[in-house]
Design a protein that fits this description.
Its EC number is 2.6.1.16. By secondary structure, this protein is α/β, with parallel strands linked by helices. The chain contains 14 helices and 12 strands. The structure holds 5-amino-5-deoxy-1-O-phosphono-D-mannitol. 5-amino-5-deoxy-1-O-phosphono-D-mannitol binds next to helix 4.
């Protein structure tokens, strides 16, 4: 049941600290990841893994895009990410030593399942499913699986399934790094252990985000900007807003602004950005300056230490500092809350948006 919450989506957003902790339970030991979490054959499989192909749809696809940044940076393996409906009709070239990974909340998404069946004919070293539903088709048909343990997700707009997928993908990154290069990333493991706490601190910002949402209720368009691993977080923020508030939203890597979308920016265009404290911060700041110079209205979720402050045309909500590697996960939360509150203001059916189904079991 929804308990004290008005909608399942809100309940599921607030469950995230607990399910993130559940997704980590028994999968770390001291400052190290336990590769066996991926099954008894995982060590051998990851040692053979020279590149990774990740296939998914919708929100799960956005999680895969984040994982590309992580796997390349921290595990040193090349990664390709694609939506299942495209992959299954291509003629993919599969280099030796490729691992095939699917991501799915339901484990029943028709295109993702078809992609897995197709991939099995292409000579991958193995297939791994990261999934939230035990016993689902995807889980049954993959060589190896890791469950995300988010619990049942009722809201059509995926929230806790996404953040627990990110936890699982970070565990995959750490496991491949350890199996292939004996490299541990103790700092990330340590940060994972306090991740649920940081998420709790972010959820406390709910009231501030609800206030902010009023600026969106009358808008017809919104632009989301991010850089690096936060570009997929911008994509996910835009998808959430579209799905439940029916406001047209687009996401761009901030560096692409000048190549077209800047033409859309005027005083009617809200621009939402996430600004964690990472090595792209200065670049992002100058992109935001480009928006301000055109009179765009900026809404920025920023690390408390980066010194971006509210002023004319820019409203800032500060987030607690978090390890750079885990920032994509943490910065997802305020974007979920923002779209939730905008949808509530607009009076849409938050848990059952028009035209959408929770599980897309037909092509
Ligand atoms: O169950 P799956 O993760 O395979 O579902 C994939 C998409 O259909 C799903 O993420 C969809 O985009 C959500 N409605 C997003 O909120």
């Amino acid at each position: 049941s929804k308990g004290e919450y008005r909608h399942y989506m809100l309940k599921e957003i607030f469950e995230q600290p607990r399910v993130i902790q559940a997704a980590l339970e028994g999968r770390l030991s001291g400052n190290s990841v336990l590769i066996e979490s991926f099954g008894p054959d995982a060590q051998a499989l990851f040692q053979k893994t020279r590149q990774v192909h990740i296939i998914a749809c919708g929100t799960s696809y956005h999680a895969a895009l984040v994982a590309r940044y992580w796997l390349e940076r921290y595990a040193g393996v090349p990664v390709q990410v694609e939506v299942a409906s495209e992959y299954r009709y291509r003629h993919p070239v599969v280099p030796e030593g490729s691992l095939f990974v699917t991501l799915s909340q339901s484990g029943e998404t028709a295109d993702t399942l078809a992609a897995l069946r197709f991939a099995k004919t292409l000579g991958y070293v193995g297939t791994l499913a990261i999934c939230n539903v035990p016993g689902s088709s995807l889980v049954r048909e993959s060589d190896t699986t890791l469950m995300t343990r988010a619990g049942p997700e009722i809201g059509v707009a995926s929230t806790k399934a996404f953040t627990t997928q990110l936890v699982a993908l970070m565990l995959l990154t750490l496991s491949i790094s350890k199996a292939r290069h004996q490299q541990e990333h103790a700092g990330i493991v340590e940060a994972l252990q306090t991740l649920a706490k940081v998420c709790e601190q972010v959820l406390v910002l709910d009231g501030q985000i609800e206030q902010l949402s009023q600026a969106f209720a009358e808008k017809h368009h919104a632009l989301f900007l991010g850089r690096g691993a936060h570009y997929p977080i911008a994509l996910e923020g835009a998808l959430k807003l579209k799905e439940i508030s029916y406001i047209h939203a687009e996401a761009y890597p901030a560096g692409e602004l000048k190549h077209g979308p800047l033409a859309l920016v005027d005083s009617e265009m809200p621009v939402i950005s996430v600004a964690p404290n990472d090595d792209l911060l200065e670049k992002l700041k100058s992109n935001l300056q480009e928006v301000r110079a055109r009179g765009g209205q900026l809404f920025v979720f920023a690390d408390e230490n980066v010194g971006i402050r509210s002023q004319d045309n820019i409203q800032v909500i500060e987030l607690p500092h978090v390890h750079e590697a885990l920032a994509p996960l943490v910065y997802t939360l305020p974007l979920q809350l923002l779209s939730y509150h905008v949808a509530v203001l607009k009076g849409t059916d938050v848990d059952q948006p028009r035209n959408l189904a929770k599980s897309v079991t037909v092509e």
